[in-house]
Design a protein that fits this description.
- This is ATP-binding cassette domain-containing protein.
- Keywords: ATP-binding, Nucleotide-binding, Transport.
- Belongs to the ABC transporter superfamily.
- It is a single chain.
- This protein has two domains: about 5-220, Rossmann fold (3-Layer(aba) Sandwich), CATH 3.40.50; about 225-300.
- The strands form three sheets. It has a six-stranded mixed beta sheet with strand order 6-7-8-3-9-10, with helices on both faces.
- The chain has helices at about 40-50, 70-75, 90-100, 105-120, 135-150, 165-185, 195, 220-225, 240-250, 280-295, 305-310, 320-325, 325-340; strands at about 5-10, 15-25, 30-35, 55-60, 65, 75-80, 155, 185-190, 205-210, 210-215, 225-230, 270-275, 295-305.
- The longest helix is centred in the middle third of the chain and has 18 residues, at about 165-185.
- The protein is of the alpha/beta class.
- Strand 7 (about 155), helix 6 (about 165-185) and strand 8 (about 185-190) form a beta-alpha-beta unit.
- Bound molecules: adenosine-5'-triphosphate.
- Adenosine-5'-triphosphate binds near residues 16, 39 and 40.
């Protein structure tokens, strides 16, 4: 089943092609749409809502054609816009009830659904205060609530973490995940930050300059370049156990990450050796090397790379890549053409 499908979707503005022959399919679940500022994310959302006509190509949402069924699509789809668009003088309850009524809910149902939805987004206590006094995070939650209040089958969330601090971002991402797990609503969430999508999304679509670079299950991004993390103990004979192991493994012909790259973010960081697991024999080589050195093997596990690392250039740190969309999408084009992606078209000429 497909919730969103596009075929050669193109949008030309007088001076820029915002979407360029975009062909993709999105299944139910939580999907991240990632791209730098100006990549075409908001333009795609407006077309999917039937609010802006495509220049060429087709798109369907929940099986409905965006060019003819815009009204029916908007009945079943929730939309959280990117920019601040909330009236400051009314309360969250008044605003969300109004949006529910606009979506066609009767008065009683609108009030009940509003209370439920504001509870879900964590605004129940504050629901009668004017929105103008809310923090950015609270305003984002009101925008999420109004997108959910009419119990849609799909929500399109445009940069919901914009303007939030790291804690606020984590909270919002958790909420978004629960929109799907608790209510079964499919989610398309845009972001210019690759890193924040990997914990939230089942699937990630990357666009750049209006073209599709890659569309893959999140697990495909994170498994593709698996690395083995090996943690060992020190011994009297080898007071620097990891150093000794690193030397032994390099001597055995394995690709070993430099000491400075070892295990950041992992328990036991600093005592972890990262080895490229090119094939299954690597496990045996590591086991034999540890035994020969007489070290204690604490753990040996396949490390899942972060999505950002897939887009990393040499000399660019993962953190820089995950926080700088320009850096990630700039290199993603190369990745897309070399890794055999699932995209149907429009992406291979992006480099
Ligand atoms: N109404 C418009 N008229 C002319 N150009 C537009 C219009 N809307 C968007 N664009 C241009 O189309 C391109 C894609 O814009 P879009 O807003 O879709 O990108 P985006 O990925 O959502 O980025 P952002 O997160 O910064 O909004 C940009 O170059 C933008 O300047």
């Amino acid at each position: 089943m497909t919730v969103i499908a596009t075929e050669n979707l193109t949008k030309r503005y007088p001076r820029v092609t915002a979407l360029d022959r975009l062909t993709m399919e999105i299944a139910p679940g939580v999907t991240g749409l990632v791209g730098a500022n100006g990549a075409g994310k908001s333009t795609l959302i407006k077309i999917l809502l039937g609010l802006s006509p495509a220049s060429e190509g087709t798109a369907s949402v929940l099986g409905m054609d965006v060019s003819t069924d815009g009204g029916a699509i908007r009945e079943r789809v929730g939309y959280m816009p990117e920019h601040d668009c909330l009236p400051p003088d009314v309360s969250a309850t008044e605003f969300v009830v109004h949006m529910a009524r606009m979506s066609g809910l009767p008065a009683t149902a609108a009030r009940e659904r509003t209370a439920d939805t504001l509870r879900h987004v964590g605004l129940y206590e504050e629901r009668y205060r004017p929105i103008g006094g809310y923090s950015t995070g609270m305003k984002q939650r009101v925008k999420l609530a109004q997108a959910l209040v009419h119990d849609p089958r799909l929500v399109l969330l445009d940069e919901p973490t914009n303007g939030l601090d790291p804690v606020g971002r984590d909270d919002m991402l958790g909420l978004i995940r629960r929109v799907h797990t608790d209510f079964g609503i499919s989610v398309l969430v845009t972001s210019h930050l690759l890193g924040e999508l990997e914990r939230t999304c089942d699937h990630v679509v990357v666009i750049d300059g209006g073209k599709l670079l890659r569309s893959s299950a999140t697990a495909d991004f994170t498994q593709r370049t698996a690395t083995l993390a090996v943690e060992v103990t020190d011994t009297d004979a080898h007071p620097d156990g990891t150093g000794a192991l690193r030397t032994a493994l390099a001597g055995a012909g394995l690709t070993v990450a430099p000491a400075t790259a070892g295990g950041e973010g992992l328990p036991g960081a600093g005592h972890v050796v990262l080895v490229e697991a090119s094939d299954d024999t690597v496990y045996d080589t590591v086991r034999d090397a540890v035994a020969e050195l007489g070290l204690g093997l604490v753990r040996m596990e396949q490390r899942r790379h972060r999505i950002a690392e897939v887009f990393q250039t040499s000399g660019t740190t993962a953190d820089a890549a995950s926080t700088a969309a320009a850096a990630t999408t700039g290199t993603a084009a190369t990745t897309a053409t070399t890794t055999g992606t699932t995209q149907k078209g429009g992406g291979t000429d992006a480099a």
